[in-house]
Amino acid sequence: MSEDSFDLVVIGGGPGGYVAAIRAAQLGMNVACVEKRGALGGTCLNVGCIPSKALLQSSHHYQTANHELAAHGVKTASVTLDLAAMMARKDKVVAELTKGIEFLLKKNKVSRVDGAGAVTAADTVTVKAGKGKARVLKAENILIATGSDTAPLAGVKIDEKRIVSSTGALSLAKVPKDMVVIGAGVIGLELGSVWRRLGSKVTVVEFLDGILPGMDGEVRAQMRRILSRQGMAFKLSTKVTTARPSKSGVSLTVAPVNGGPEETLKADLVLVAIGRRPYTDGLGLDRLGVEMDKRGFVKVDEDFQTNVAGVFAIGDVIGGAMLAHKAEDEGVAVAEILAGQAGHVNYETIPGVVYTHPEVASVGLGEEKLKEDGVAYNVGKFPFSANSRARVNADADGFVKVLADAAGDRVLGVHIIGPAAGELIQEAVSVMEFGGSAEDMARTCHAHPGLYEALKEAAMAVDGRAIHI
Ligand code: FAD
Ligand code: NAD
């Protein structure tokens, strides 16, 4: 067996792992990054953020060409779908971006090690690739960044043919006629939107009595109305008990959560999107005595260190918001901590975006949480229907809502449904990061005509002085 020594061995080449590896190398460490997928970028680049956003963009173009361009005076002959070309474009974007990460690791002199890593001692990672000999890496510190995987659902076996996870739903060879999505969370609504736009009749079955749990209640209710109007059907407070695939499709048995008669749903395709579980398979953490919580998330302290000295963890595998940018920020922070610096992540200002159309974006607390915490707050709201740029663009669904502390006016949460909400939210994130107030946002000059003006107006509305409503 060959043997190498590193200051840091990172297991997992996703947004948490590769960013930590690069930052640690920048800070002078000798770093190896172990990845078993055959490509860098993790879930995010290979089967998550990037391919889903590529299909959302392409399917949005298809929808626009079919239904919206005529209103702008742009006439098209009949619009047809070339699904194979759409998928090929998505694959090309993914391939180019994963190659980009390869380049970045090389540029920063991070050693890339292909294969599955296991932590065989607190200072040793053993890597197996195919049938070849295991390679032993000695490490001053080890970072677990192995991410997450689709959560399974009892009674519903994913075969990635008729019953698929998000990974299968990103590579379908044809548009399903009837599609049932289990789970009205981020994946269900994004991928449900892709296939609805391309022609599927989509029914979303959700256990809870509303969509997008955890978000501000008003946003959840309005987004449900908007998606229903677009043609997405919702079966809320409903559980799936079994799903039986056959040659002709899938037969699902569903029942109301609060009791009542069962019902049978037929679908050509079922997407299971009920959340993700931490992925630690084959890592040997039990053997090493690394503590995990009862859901399997690796437990860490404020320095991202596990209970085993020298073994750290970040990203989806430690839980919290399962988002690429949260994993990346933790990657930077842990590398800086290892270098003796003050690495830190502000969990109060991590934005969340749902890339439907319109988009949903949120940072900080929603009204329900503020009430629960007994915080007195003021609300400022501004609809995109009163924003000139949104009207010019014929894209005026949604609103901006600013929630500010009643005593000091500090911004506590901003929630947006609207065009480019995922970009607009960044202004609110910056304001909150600096501890800014609604008054700060209201007094900041915003270019006209711009979607950003809706944020300024919502901030002015906190004090009852919006101009355009
Ligand atoms: P991962 O990206 O999961 O990377 C972990 C890597 O570790 C994987 O490549 C895996 O192969 C490797 N690995 C695991 N075990 C081993 C081992 N033993 N040895 C070697 N390698 C190993 N987040 C957003 O912020 N925005 C989005 O738009 C978004 N869209 C998404 C869409 C979908 C369909 C999905 C599924 C997720 C999406 N996410 C999105 C979530 C995002 O992908 C994750 O939060 C992010 O990838 C987590 O990063 P990570 O580095 O912790 O783990
Ligand atoms: P999610 O947690 O967002 O939503 C899961 C939904 O399934 C919830 O509404 C939940 O109530 C419901 N559910 C759970 N069990 C159920 C059952 N038995 N029957 C019916 N419904 C059930 O999870 P997801 O959509 O699978 O996404 C997983 C993770 O990936 C999320 O945490 C998210 O952070 C990340 N992600 C992010 C983005 C983005 O940032 N745009 C996109 C996709 C995924």
Topology:
Blueprint: E1 3-11, H1 15-26, E2 31-35, H2 42-47, H3 49-67, H4 83-107, E3 111-114, E4 116-121, E5 124-128, E6 135-144, E7 148-150, E8 163-164, H5 166-169, E9 178-182, H6 186-197, E10 201-205, H7 217-230, E11 233-235, E12 238-246, E13 249-256, E14 263-267, E15 269-272, E16 276-278, H8 285-288, E17 311-313, H9 324-338, E18 352-354, E19 359-364, H10 367-372, E20 377-383, H11 388-392, E21 399-405, E22 411-418, H12 421-433, H13 438-443, H14 453-461
Parallel strand pairs: 1-2, 1-6, 2-3, 6-17, 8-15, 9-10, 9-15, 10-11
Antiparallel strand pairs: 4-5, 5-6, 7-16, 12-13, 13-14, 18-19, 19-22, 20-21, 21-22
Helix pairs in contact: 1-9, 3-4, 3-6
Bound molecules: flavin-adenine dinucleotide and nicotinamide-adenine-dinucleotide (NAD).
**What is the CATH architecture assignment of the largest domain?**
3-Layer(bba) Sandwich
Strand composition percent: 25-35%
Q: What's the helix count? A: 14
- Which fold name fills CATH's third level, the topology of the largest domain? FAD/NAD(P)-binding domain
Shape, per Cα inertia axes = globular
Number of domains: 3
Question: How many strand elements?
Answer: 22
User: What is the fourth-level CATH superfamily of the largest domain?
Assistant: FAD/NAD(P)-binding domain
How much helicity do the residues have? 25-40%
What is the terminal-to-terminal distance? 72 Å
Radius of gyration: 24 Å
Determine and state the CATH class of the largest domain: Alpha Beta
Instruction: List the ions, cofactors and other small molecules found in this model.
Output: flavin-adenine dinucleotide, nicotinamide-adenine-dinucleotide
> Would you tell me the structural class of the helices and strands?
alpha/beta
Q: Give the mean pLDDT.
A: 97
